[in-house]
Design brief:
The protein is mainly alpha-helical and 285 residues long. The chain has one domain.
């Protein structure tokens, strides 16, 4: 069902704006943009691996930074090439769990690590959109209240007796320990900044002339759409980008072209993960 929604979103965009913006996006990709995306991806991937290592060690799992970086690149490549966008994370959790003889804990470490990143991203997104002009600024107070209500609901669920002990223990040791949460928060903030910078470069590469300050809130909206069902990252991202650019007066077609450039940049930046996969296959053979 989720894949059908993503495919339907792409089909609706083609019907609305035609294939021109998609082709324009592909044609405007250049070496400078790809090199910038690759460099930014090195920074964000190292930060992702660092965050994962901090959480995993908090849960009692050994994980070196070098191993974490290689596994995270592999995970990113699988996420952007396979439907669903989470296959790489599941594979990463299972592989690490097998290496440490605790698959369940390995999967939980990945889940906590990704959840922490999502929480920081949501907080940053809400904070920026509350003060920076954007197509959703008028709705942001209600959205902020909804986020707070959702956080309260999570707390109430966590207080249920059956869940409380395990949740509190893993939260305290994996995320909220004094040696963990500053690193997790800093790494997550740097990751969001890297993704936003990549999107801004994609927008300018696609021909957008708006300043980075105007594209910033649009980038955060598009990054938030990454949590929606997708096909290797494609689908909701293009739909939200088209809507956001149109609402900001930049044109839906320009938004689609930007999304295509961004998608190509992300794919190229994830290619070291293919090398990690190939190396692992050769070693097994």
């Amino acid at each position: 069902m989720s894949l059908a929604i993503a495919a339907g979103t792409l089909a609706a965009l083609v019907w609305q704006v035609g294939t021109g913006p998609f082709l324009d996006g592909l044609q405007t990709v250049n070496g400078t943009a790809l090199a910038a995306a690759f460099g930014l991806a090195v920074m964000t991937t190292v930060c992702c691996a660092w965050r994962w290592r901090v959480v995993a060690r908090g849960l009692g799992l050994d994980l070196s930074l070098r191993t974490a970086v290689a596994a995270y690149y592999r995970s990113l490549f699988l996420n952007v090439t396979l439907p669903g966008g989470v296959v790489g994370d599941v594979h990463r959790g299972i592989s690490h769990g097998r290496d440490t003889s605790d698959v369940a804990r390995g999967l939980r470490a990945v889940a906590w690590e990704r959840s922490a990143g999502q929480v920081v991203q949501v907080v940053l997104t809400v904070a920026v959109l509350l003060v920076v002009p954007s197509p959703v600024r008028g709705s942001m107070p209600l959205i902020a209240l909804a986020v707070l209500a959702a956080a309260g609901g999570v707390v109430l669920v966590g207080r249920a007796p059956r869940w409380r002990a395990a949740l509190v223990h893993e939260l305290r040791s994996g995320l909220l320990a004094r040696s963990a949460w500053p690193a997790v928060a800093l790494a997550s903030a740097l990751i969001v900044a890297g993704h936003v910078a990549t999107f801004v470069i994609a927008a300018h590469t696609a021909g957008a002339t708006a300043p980075a300050s105007q594209i910033l809130p649009l980038a955060l909206l598009v990054l938030a759409a990454g949590a929606l069902p997708n096909i290797g990252g494609w689908g909701p991202r293009e739909g939200v980008t088209a809507w956001a650019f149109a609402a900001a007066g930049l044109g839906a077609s320009r938004g689609v072209a930007t999304a295509v450039v961004y998608g190509v940049m992300v794919f190229v930046a994830s290619l070291p993960g293919a090398l990690v996969l190939l190396t692992g296959w050769v070693r097994r053979v």
